[in-house]
Amino acid sequence: MANCLPFNAIEHDRVYKAEDWAWYFATFIANGVFPKPSDGLQVIAYSGMEIKVNAGYAFINGYAFRNPASASITLDTAEGALNRIDRVIVRWDLTQRDMYLAVLKGTPSAQPAAVSLTRNTEIWELALADIYVGKGVTSIKTQNITDRRFNSALCGIVTGTVEEIDASVLTKQFDDFFSTYSQAVLDEFSVYKQSMEAYLTEIGGIYDSYVSKTESLFNQYKSHFEERYTEFESTLSQWDDELLAAYTQFMANMATFQTEAESQFNTWFESIKDKLGEDAAGQLALEIEELTESVEELRQQVQTGNAAMQEALDGLDARLTAVENGWGINYNHDAVLGLCYMGAAWMSQYYERTVETAVLGVGYIGNSYLANTF
Hints:
Layout: H1 18-26, E1 32-33, E2 43-47, E3 50-53, E4 56-60, E5 63-67, E6 71-74, E7 84-93, E8 98-104, E9 123-133, E10 145-147, E11 157-158, E12 164-165, H2 168-272, H3 278-304, H4 306-327, H5 333-347, H6 354-373
Antiparallel strand pairs: 1-4, 2-3, 3-6, 4-5, 7-8, 7-9, 9-10, 11-12
Helix pairs in contact: 2-6, 3-4, 3-5, 5-6
Protein backbone atom coordinates (compact mmCIF):
# COMPACT_ATOMS: atom_id res chain seq x y z
CA MET A 1 0.00 0.00 0.00
CA ALA A 2 1.35 3.41 -0.96
CA ASN A 3 2.09 5.91 1.76
CA CYS A 4 2.16 9.65 1.72
CA LEU A 5 2.60 12.49 4.18
CA PRO A 6 2.02 14.92 5.64
CA PHE A 7 -1.67 15.82 5.49
CA ASN A 8 -3.77 17.50 8.11
CA ALA A 9 -6.01 15.18 10.06
CA ILE A 10 -9.80 15.45 10.24
CA GLU A 11 -11.04 13.89 13.40
CA HIS A 12 -7.65 12.15 13.74
CA ASP A 13 -7.88 10.29 10.46
CA ARG A 14 -4.26 11.11 9.67
CA VAL A 15 -1.89 9.71 12.34
CA TYR A 16 1.81 9.50 11.49
CA LYS A 17 4.29 7.24 13.30
CA ALA A 18 8.03 7.68 13.81
CA GLU A 19 8.86 5.23 11.07
CA ASP A 20 6.71 7.30 8.68
CA TRP A 21 8.89 10.32 9.29
CA ALA A 22 12.03 8.18 9.22
CA TRP A 23 11.45 6.92 5.67
CA TYR A 24 10.58 10.44 4.68
CA PHE A 25 13.91 11.87 5.96
CA ALA A 26 15.84 8.90 4.62
CA THR A 27 14.82 9.80 1.11
CA PHE A 28 17.01 12.89 1.08
CA ILE A 29 19.43 12.44 4.05
CA ALA A 30 21.81 9.50 3.67
CA ASN A 31 23.49 7.58 6.45
CA GLY A 32 26.78 8.85 7.97
CA VAL A 33 28.22 11.48 10.32
CA PHE A 34 27.69 15.18 9.82
CA PRO A 35 30.76 17.13 8.67
CA LYS A 36 30.33 19.94 11.18
CA PRO A 37 32.20 20.10 13.41
CA SER A 38 35.05 18.56 11.44
CA ASP A 39 36.09 16.44 14.43
CA GLY A 40 32.52 15.40 15.19
CA LEU A 41 32.35 11.87 16.65
CA GLN A 42 36.13 11.49 16.18
CA VAL A 43 37.70 8.82 18.42
CA ILE A 44 40.84 9.96 20.28
CA ALA A 45 43.23 8.40 22.81
CA TYR A 46 42.88 9.63 26.36
CA SER A 47 44.47 7.79 29.30
CA GLY A 48 45.48 4.16 29.66
CA MET A 49 42.84 2.00 28.00
CA GLU A 50 40.33 4.85 28.08
CA ILE A 51 39.33 6.62 24.85
CA LYS A 52 37.09 9.58 24.08
CA VAL A 53 34.42 10.11 21.37
CA ASN A 54 34.03 13.79 20.53
CA ALA A 55 30.69 15.53 20.45
CA GLY A 56 28.93 15.31 17.05
CA TYR A 57 26.00 14.07 14.98
CA ALA A 58 25.12 11.01 12.90
CA PHE A 59 22.18 9.97 10.74
CA ILE A 60 21.01 6.36 10.17
CA ASN A 61 17.94 5.30 8.18
CA GLY A 62 16.10 8.57 8.80
CA TYR A 63 16.93 8.69 12.52
CA ALA A 64 19.24 11.33 14.00
CA PHE A 65 21.89 10.74 16.69
CA ARG A 66 23.46 13.47 18.81
CA ASN A 67 26.41 13.14 21.17
CA PRO A 68 26.21 16.43 23.10
CA ALA A 69 29.57 16.12 24.88
CA SER A 70 32.75 14.08 24.75
CA ALA A 71 31.92 10.51 25.78
CA SER A 72 34.36 8.23 27.64
CA ILE A 73 34.78 4.54 26.77
CA THR A 74 37.20 2.13 28.48
CA LEU A 75 38.39 -0.79 26.38
CA ASP A 76 38.87 -4.27 27.81
CA THR A 77 42.33 -5.24 29.05
CA ALA A 78 44.79 -6.28 26.34
CA GLU A 79 45.47 -9.97 25.75
CA GLY A 80 48.67 -11.46 27.08
CA ALA A 81 49.87 -13.27 23.95
CA LEU A 82 47.71 -12.13 21.00
CA ASN A 83 46.59 -8.88 19.40
CA ARG A 84 43.07 -7.73 18.55
CA ILE A 85 41.20 -4.88 16.81
CA ASP A 86 38.28 -3.22 18.59
CA ARG A 87 35.80 -1.21 16.51
CA VAL A 88 33.95 1.84 17.90
CA ILE A 89 30.48 2.26 16.34
CA VAL A 90 27.21 4.18 16.39
CA ARG A 91 24.36 1.66 16.52
CA TRP A 92 20.73 2.14 15.40
CA ASP A 93 18.67 -0.33 17.43
CA LEU A 94 15.04 -0.47 16.36
CA THR A 95 14.12 -3.09 18.95
CA GLN A 96 15.47 -0.93 21.76
CA ARG A 97 14.20 2.22 20.03
CA ASP A 98 17.57 3.81 20.63
CA MET A 99 20.84 4.94 19.03
CA TYR A 100 24.05 4.75 21.05
CA LEU A 101 27.85 4.34 21.02
CA ALA A 102 29.27 0.83 21.39
CA VAL A 103 32.49 -1.19 21.02
CA LEU A 104 32.76 -4.34 18.94
CA LYS A 105 35.55 -6.25 20.71
CA GLY A 106 37.84 -8.02 18.26
CA THR A 107 38.90 -11.65 18.35
CA PRO A 108 42.51 -12.14 19.62
CA SER A 109 44.77 -13.37 16.84
CA ALA A 110 48.30 -13.21 15.52
CA GLN A 111 46.77 -11.40 12.50
CA PRO A 112 43.69 -9.71 13.97
CA ALA A 113 40.82 -8.22 11.97
CA ALA A 114 37.97 -5.91 12.96
CA VAL A 115 34.50 -7.36 13.59
CA SER A 116 32.10 -6.96 10.65
CA LEU A 117 29.26 -4.44 10.98
CA THR A 118 25.67 -5.61 11.49
CA ARG A 119 23.18 -4.08 9.08
CA ASN A 120 19.59 -5.36 8.87
CA THR A 121 16.02 -4.17 9.47
CA GLU A 122 16.54 -4.02 13.25
CA ILE A 123 20.27 -3.19 13.68
CA TRP A 124 22.38 -0.81 11.63
CA GLU A 125 25.92 0.18 12.59
CA LEU A 126 28.35 2.92 11.46
CA ALA A 127 32.06 2.43 12.16
CA LEU A 128 33.75 5.48 13.69
CA ALA A 129 37.24 4.02 14.27
CA ASP A 130 39.26 0.80 14.51
CA ILE A 131 41.64 0.50 17.49
CA TYR A 132 44.64 -1.83 17.42
CA VAL A 133 45.09 -3.37 20.89
CA GLY A 134 48.54 -4.95 20.97
CA LYS A 135 49.32 -7.85 23.27
CA GLY A 136 50.20 -6.79 26.80
CA VAL A 137 49.70 -3.03 26.23
CA THR A 138 48.39 -0.90 29.08
CA SER A 139 47.52 2.24 27.14
CA ILE A 140 46.16 3.27 23.75
CA LYS A 141 48.17 5.72 21.64
CA THR A 142 47.02 7.94 18.78
CA GLN A 143 48.91 5.80 16.26
CA ASN A 144 46.82 2.78 17.35
CA ILE A 145 43.57 4.45 16.15
CA THR A 146 42.41 4.31 12.51
CA ASP A 147 39.66 6.83 11.68
CA ARG A 148 36.83 5.19 9.69
CA ARG A 149 34.42 8.16 9.46
CA PHE A 150 35.50 8.99 5.91
CA ASN A 151 35.13 5.44 4.62
CA SER A 152 31.72 5.45 2.88
CA ALA A 153 31.53 1.65 3.03
CA LEU A 154 31.84 1.68 6.81
CA CYS A 155 30.44 5.12 7.69
CA GLY A 156 30.59 8.13 5.36
CA ILE A 157 30.00 11.89 5.67
CA VAL A 158 26.59 13.55 5.25
CA THR A 159 27.14 16.69 3.15
CA GLY A 160 23.69 18.05 2.47
CA THR A 161 20.02 17.32 2.00
CA VAL A 162 20.41 15.61 -1.34
CA GLU A 163 23.65 13.64 -1.37
CA GLU A 164 26.56 12.60 0.72
CA ILE A 165 30.23 12.69 -0.18
CA ASP A 166 31.64 9.40 -1.32
CA ALA A 167 34.88 9.45 0.61
CA SER A 168 35.93 5.95 -0.39
CA VAL A 169 38.20 7.21 -3.19
CA LEU A 170 39.85 9.77 -0.93
CA THR A 171 40.20 7.20 1.81
CA LYS A 172 41.76 4.73 -0.61
CA GLN A 173 44.25 7.38 -1.71
CA PHE A 174 45.19 8.04 1.88
CA ASP A 175 45.48 4.32 2.58
CA ASP A 176 47.63 3.77 -0.51
CA PHE A 177 49.85 6.70 0.36
CA PHE A 178 50.22 5.51 3.93
CA SER A 179 50.99 1.97 2.78
CA THR A 180 53.60 3.20 0.29
CA TYR A 181 55.15 5.59 2.77
CA SER A 182 55.19 2.93 5.48
CA GLN A 183 56.92 0.49 3.15
CA ALA A 184 59.49 3.13 2.19
CA VAL A 185 60.17 3.84 5.84
CA LEU A 186 60.49 0.13 6.56
CA ASP A 187 62.90 -0.29 3.64
CA GLU A 188 65.04 2.62 4.83
CA PHE A 189 64.97 1.27 8.35
CA SER A 190 66.03 -2.15 7.09
CA VAL A 191 69.02 -0.62 5.28
CA TYR A 192 69.86 1.43 8.36
CA LYS A 193 69.57 -1.64 10.56
CA GLN A 194 71.91 -3.62 8.31
CA SER A 195 74.41 -0.75 8.32
CA MET A 196 74.25 -0.52 12.10
CA GLU A 197 74.71 -4.27 12.47
CA ALA A 198 77.76 -4.17 10.20
CA TYR A 199 79.11 -1.18 12.12
CA LEU A 200 78.55 -2.88 15.46
CA THR A 201 80.27 -6.01 14.16
CA GLU A 202 83.25 -3.92 13.06
CA ILE A 203 83.35 -2.07 16.38
CA GLY A 204 83.10 -5.40 18.19
CA GLY A 205 86.11 -6.70 16.26
CA ILE A 206 88.13 -3.57 17.06
CA TYR A 207 87.17 -3.83 20.71
CA ASP A 208 88.11 -7.51 20.89
CA SER A 209 91.47 -6.73 19.26
CA TYR A 210 92.06 -3.90 21.72
CA VAL A 211 91.21 -6.14 24.68
CA SER A 212 93.52 -8.88 23.37
CA LYS A 213 96.44 -6.48 22.88
CA THR A 214 95.83 -4.86 26.25
CA GLU A 215 95.79 -8.22 28.02
CA SER A 216 98.99 -9.27 26.23
CA LEU A 217 100.75 -6.03 27.18
CA PHE A 218 99.51 -6.32 30.74
CA ASN A 219 100.81 -9.88 31.00
CA GLN A 220 104.22 -8.73 29.70
CA TYR A 221 104.37 -5.93 32.26
CA LYS A 222 103.22 -8.29 34.98
CA SER A 223 105.89 -10.87 34.10
CA HIS A 224 108.60 -8.20 33.96
CA PHE A 225 107.48 -6.73 37.27
CA GLU A 226 107.41 -10.12 38.98
CA GLU A 227 110.89 -10.86 37.67
CA ARG A 228 112.27 -7.52 38.90
CA TYR A 229 110.45 -7.87 42.20
CA THR A 230 111.89 -11.35 42.77
CA GLU A 231 115.37 -10.04 41.99
CA PHE A 232 114.88 -7.05 44.30
CA GLU A 233 113.53 -9.26 47.07
CA SER A 234 116.56 -11.55 46.74
CA THR A 235 118.90 -8.54 46.92
CA LEU A 236 117.15 -7.23 50.02
CA SER A 237 117.41 -10.65 51.64
CA GLN A 238 121.15 -10.74 50.85
CA TRP A 239 121.58 -7.24 52.30
CA ASP A 240 119.72 -8.31 55.43
CA ASP A 241 122.03 -11.30 55.85
CA GLU A 242 125.17 -9.20 55.32
CA LEU A 243 123.97 -6.47 57.68
CA LEU A 244 123.06 -9.01 60.35
CA ALA A 245 126.46 -10.69 59.99
CA ALA A 246 128.26 -7.34 60.24
CA TYR A 247 126.22 -6.34 63.28
CA THR A 248 126.85 -9.70 64.94
CA GLN A 249 130.59 -9.38 64.30
CA PHE A 250 130.57 -5.81 65.63
CA MET A 251 128.82 -6.85 68.83
CA ALA A 252 131.26 -9.75 69.23
CA ASN A 253 134.21 -7.37 68.78
CA MET A 254 132.72 -4.96 71.30
CA ALA A 255 132.22 -7.79 73.79
CA THR A 256 135.82 -8.95 73.27
CA PHE A 257 137.10 -5.40 73.64
CA GLN A 258 135.09 -4.89 76.83
CA THR A 259 136.38 -8.16 78.30
CA GLU A 260 140.00 -7.39 77.41
CA ALA A 261 139.80 -3.80 78.67
CA GLU A 262 138.21 -4.89 81.93
CA SER A 263 140.84 -7.61 82.38
CA GLN A 264 143.70 -5.21 81.70
CA PHE A 265 142.28 -2.63 84.07
CA ASN A 266 141.79 -5.16 86.85
CA THR A 267 145.35 -6.43 86.39
CA TRP A 268 146.75 -2.91 86.48
CA PHE A 269 144.66 -1.84 89.43
CA GLU A 270 145.62 -4.92 91.43
CA SER A 271 149.25 -4.03 90.84
CA ILE A 272 148.97 -0.48 92.22
CA LYS A 273 146.18 -0.50 94.81
CA ASP A 274 148.50 -1.76 97.59
CA LYS A 275 151.01 0.98 96.83
CA LEU A 276 148.61 3.80 97.80
CA GLY A 277 147.91 4.72 101.44
CA GLU A 278 144.43 5.26 102.79
CA ASP A 279 144.85 9.04 102.92
CA ALA A 280 146.37 9.15 99.49
CA ALA A 281 143.62 6.94 98.11
CA GLY A 282 140.89 9.11 99.65
CA GLN A 283 142.46 12.31 98.38
CA LEU A 284 142.89 10.71 94.98
CA ALA A 285 139.21 9.73 94.94
CA LEU A 286 138.22 13.34 95.71
CA GLU A 287 140.46 14.62 92.97
CA ILE A 288 139.00 12.05 90.56
CA GLU A 289 135.46 13.18 91.36
CA GLU A 290 136.43 16.80 90.79
CA LEU A 291 138.18 15.94 87.54
CA THR A 292 135.18 13.87 86.40
CA GLU A 293 132.89 16.85 86.98
CA SER A 294 135.32 19.09 85.11
CA VAL A 295 135.45 16.69 82.18
CA GLU A 296 131.63 16.59 82.05
CA GLU A 297 131.49 20.39 82.09
CA LEU A 298 134.13 20.44 79.37
CA ARG A 299 132.05 18.14 77.19
CA GLN A 300 129.03 20.39 77.55
CA GLN A 301 131.07 23.48 76.77
CA VAL A 302 132.54 21.88 73.64
CA GLN A 303 129.04 21.83 72.20
CA THR A 304 128.63 25.60 72.64
CA GLY A 305 131.74 26.62 70.73
CA ASN A 306 135.50 26.52 70.38
CA ALA A 307 136.07 29.55 72.65
CA ALA A 308 134.24 27.97 75.58
CA MET A 309 136.04 24.67 74.96
CA GLN A 310 139.44 26.39 74.96
CA GLU A 311 138.65 28.17 78.20
CA ALA A 312 137.61 24.90 79.84
CA LEU A 313 140.77 23.17 78.63
CA ASP A 314 142.90 25.97 80.06
CA GLY A 315 141.14 25.63 83.41
CA LEU A 316 141.58 21.87 83.42
CA ASP A 317 145.26 22.25 82.57
CA ALA A 318 145.75 24.59 85.52
CA ARG A 319 144.04 22.15 87.87
CA LEU A 320 146.13 19.24 86.60
CA THR A 321 149.28 21.29 87.13
CA ALA A 322 148.17 22.01 90.70
CA VAL A 323 147.59 18.32 91.31
CA GLU A 324 151.04 17.48 89.99
CA ASN A 325 152.67 20.14 92.16
CA GLY A 326 150.67 19.14 95.23
CA TRP A 327 151.64 15.49 95.02
CA GLY A 328 155.17 16.05 93.78
CA ILE A 329 154.59 13.89 90.73
CA ASN A 330 156.74 14.60 87.68
CA TYR A 331 154.49 12.76 85.24
CA ASN A 332 153.04 14.56 82.30
CA HIS A 333 149.41 15.67 82.39
CA ASP A 334 148.31 12.68 80.35
CA ALA A 335 149.65 10.25 82.90
CA VAL A 336 147.87 11.98 85.75
CA LEU A 337 144.64 12.24 83.80
CA GLY A 338 144.90 8.59 82.78
CA LEU A 339 145.44 7.57 86.39
CA CYS A 340 142.36 9.54 87.36
CA TYR A 341 140.26 7.86 84.71
CA MET A 342 141.49 4.43 85.79
CA GLY A 343 140.59 5.13 89.37
CA ALA A 344 137.20 6.45 88.41
CA ALA A 345 136.57 3.35 86.34
CA TRP A 346 137.42 1.09 89.27
CA MET A 347 135.21 3.03 91.68
CA SER A 348 132.25 3.11 89.29
CA GLN A 349 132.64 -0.33 87.72
CA TYR A 350 129.01 -1.16 88.49
CA TYR A 351 127.66 1.92 86.70
CA GLU A 352 127.40 2.99 83.09
CA ARG A 353 130.46 3.82 80.99
CA THR A 354 132.90 1.98 83.34
CA VAL A 355 134.65 0.34 80.42
CA GLU A 356 134.82 3.58 78.42
CA THR A 357 136.36 5.37 81.43
CA ALA A 358 138.97 2.66 81.89
CA VAL A 359 139.83 2.72 78.20
CA LEU A 360 140.32 6.49 78.33
CA GLY A 361 142.60 6.04 81.35
CA VAL A 362 144.72 3.44 79.60
CA GLY A 363 144.87 5.71 76.55
CA TYR A 364 146.07 8.71 78.51
CA ILE A 365 148.73 6.63 80.38
CA GLY A 366 149.94 5.18 77.09
CA ASN A 367 150.16 8.65 75.62
CA SER A 368 152.20 9.80 78.63
CA TYR A 369 154.56 6.86 78.28
CA LEU A 370 155.15 7.61 74.63
CA ALA A 371 155.69 11.29 75.40
CA ASN A 372 158.32 10.50 78.07
CA THR A 373 160.03 7.90 75.92
CA PHE A 374 160.43 9.97 72.76
